[in-house]
Specification:
Distance between the termini: 16 Å
Radius of gyration: 16 Å
Order of helices and strands: HEEEEEEEEEEEH
Number of strands: 11
Strand content: 35-45%
Number of helices: 2
Length: 143
Amino acid sequence: VLTVFALYKPALEDTSAKVALTDVIKAPMRTVSADVRLNPASAGDGAEWLTVTAWQGGGLIVNRLRKIGPGHYRTTQAIPVHGDWKTLIRLHKGSSLNGLPVYMPKDEAIPAKEVPAAASFTRSFAADHEILQREQKTAAGAL
């Protein structure tokens, strides 16, 4: 019971971010800086961490976002949004671990559609594990 309780990380409800991306390097090796505005603005207050994390494209980048104002954050380094990179905004607050995709490549093996890194977008946060394990299939209830 304690193990299950410790692993339970529900998503924050009704939490989203408006994200504006500015190209640092243009395609095909596109990298961006991100301007992030949380809704509600208090969503990041007291967070253990708020980062942009990118992996699987040839390395690992964990960029802690810099607070600009209430609910307003920016990256401090270029973030890859091309090729095999998977890029998320991740928010850990209390017992909640959340993710919001910035860029995810198309993956026909799963299958999963591309999540494009548009110049601006608004997306809702979801439980982090749902994004990280997007290939996961539903299983029988007993499992």
